[in-house]
Structure formats: structure tokens, C-alpha cells
Design a protein that fits this description.
The chain is of the alpha+beta class. The chain has one domain: Chorismate lyase-like (Chorismate lyase, 3-Layer(aba) Sandwich). It is built from 6 helices and 7 strands. Strands 1-5-6-7-4-3-2 form a 7-stranded antiparallel sheet. The chain is globular, with a radius of gyration of 16 Å. The protein starts with a strand and ends with a helix.
Length: about 160
């Protein structure tokens, strides 16, 4: 089993990162720490960190009974994979315009929500580390106190180290 730290409070703190470092016996660099605690748009953050434009490529998307399961990657303008994401989107709680864009598989969920100026609360529930492979975080997105999406983001070390 890989080191995973479940967040017990409503917000992730530097103490939570330190606890993961302790159980993983690993010291994370600044970029890794930022990726684990960030509550904003991941695609935009990766653009700033890597000084490149990014795109989201949807690998698979299946919709069953109003729930969309999506697997995607965020890659740089030079086609380096910067992150993987697995999402579970609860369609019945989203406006039809947003659902249409999600179904098109052209834009990342975060950018769609930003474009439509949807007020979102992002709650990180787990952070973790797979030795020499990647770090990850699990989080939920809420709109008007309603869960609209859960996401796992995976950040491969081979990219993070080169930044």
C-alpha cells in the first residue's frame, strides 16, 4: 500500500503535507507541495509552473444514469504529460450548457467552470505518494453546498523534477 494521508479537517494545511512526508519518508520539493495544496484551477497552475500552454485530452468518457466518468491528461505544448485526472461528474446538478461542454470532451472541467463563472468550493480529501512514480490528490467540487464532481489528479515525478 502506498502512503496516503486522509485530510481530517475542512482544509489542507502545511501540517498535513508534513504528515504525508513523514509517513512516506520523503521530502517534497516546493512545486510538489504547491500541487498537493492548490485549490485553484490545476491546468492554469501547470501552465505557470511549466511556462507553457496546456491542453486537456480526454482519454475516455462514459455517461451512465446522469454520472459522467472521465479519464483525461493535461499535457504541455511540447506534448509532455503534466498530469492525469480521473473524474466523476454528477450531471443532474449542472446547468445544461456546462454539461454540453463536458460531453464535447474538448476542455477541462476546471476551465469550463471558470468560463461559466460557477462558484466552486474545492475540498481536498486525500493526498498521497507512490515512491519514485507520482504524487496525487483526491478532491471534491461543490456548488451551492451540493457535490458536483470528485477528481483524482496524478502528477508524475519525471515532469515535476524537471521544473
Amino acid at each position: 500500500m502506498h502512503p496516503v494521508y486522509r485530510i481530517s479537517s475542512q482544509s489542507l494545511t502545511s501540517k498535513d503535507i508534513s504528515r504525508l512526508e513523514t509517513i512516506a519518508n520523503k521530502k517534497f520539493n516546493l512545486v510538489q507541495r504547491i500541487l498537493l495544496v492548490d485549490l485553484g484551477n490545476t491546468q492554469q497552475l501547470l501552465e505557470v509552473i511549466n511556462n507553457t500552454e496546456t491542453r486537456v485530452m480526454v482519454i475516455s468518457q462514459i455517461e451512465k444514469k446522469g454520472v459522467i466518468l472521465r479519464k483525461s491528461i493535461i499535457h504541455s505544448s511540447t506534448n509532455k504529460i503534466l498530469a492525469y485526472a480521473n473524474s466523476k461528474i454528477y450531471g443532474k446538478y449542472l446547468p445544461s450548457k456546462i454539461l454540453s461542454q463536458i460531453r464535447e470532451c474538448k476542455i477541462g472541467i476546471g476551465k469550463i467552470l471558470l468560463y461559466h463563472k460557477v462558484d466552486i468550493f474545492k475540498n481536498i480529501t486525500e493526498i498521497g505518494y507512490v515512491p519514485r512514480v507520482h504524487i496525487f490528490k483526491n478532491y471534491s467540487l461543490y456548488h451551492n453546498d451540493t457535490l458536483i464532481c470528485t477528481i483524482t489528479e496524478i502528477f508524475p515525478f519525471r515532469i515535476i523534477k524537471s521544473v
